[in-house]
Amino acid sequence: MNGLYDWLLEHASGVAREEPVERVCLGLSWTLAEVGDSLGFAFGPRQVPRTLSWAGTLGGQACERLYPWLRSWNTAESAVGLAVLNAVINRASPCLRQAQPLRGEASGNLSVFEHFRPRLDGQKVAVIGHYPGLAQLWQDLPYRCFEREPQDGDLPDTAVEQLLPEADWVFITASSLANKTLPRLLELSSHAQVVLMGPSLPWIYDWRRFGVNYLAGVRVQDARAARQVVAEGGGTRLFAGPVEYALLGLDS
């Protein structure tokens, strides 16, 4: 695990160290960090204490003080660390500038699955994380969904140890960075085509060294609206204008 996290933190350190974090917002669904004019997202922790000892102290701290929180096993701290890291890395990422927008009939997360659907016939497909609406979108495609809190039709996340090596395609939520499961998921998917996806994604070309074939993350379209959605507890509404999905293949 340390190799991947060392790599991410070294990359962030090369972009910004002493620059201050403007503000941090822990919404009900998303954690948002602002560095200069850049916004960084992380999927919010599902369970946090009612109060946090560091509340009111994060704004104004140097980036290098907060993005190492990504290593923390405290879920709120890890989300803050990932959001700050994304704000730092993604604001001037040539990788993100090269990515192409996904503008099909589906919206939000489903636009990624819609884009790849024509390539998946006859393939064994695995999805890490439960995505509302995917069962309907892919109703003609058998696939396995692994989820920490399984819903109808899902498999528990522990089943990845036995079943993920069988997959030809694996779609992994980038929120697995914060909960520390990503390194093992990538190990188990080393033989497969891997799509790393979600607003929590740091846009870096070198993900290929860890076996990632495609990056599917977000580009901010309306910063003011994105702040408001996060602050007011929004989830998928983030995709209704504030951000758009973009895709980049890493195999070339």
Automatic annotation (TrEMBL):
Signal peptide: none annotated. Residues 15-89 form the DUF4213 domain. It comes from Azotobacter chroococcum. InterPro entries: DUF364 (IPR007161), DUF4213 (IPR025251). This is DUF364 domain-containing protein. SUPFAM superfamilies: Dhaf3308-like. Residues 112-246 form the Putative heavy-metal chelation domain. It comes from the Bacteria.
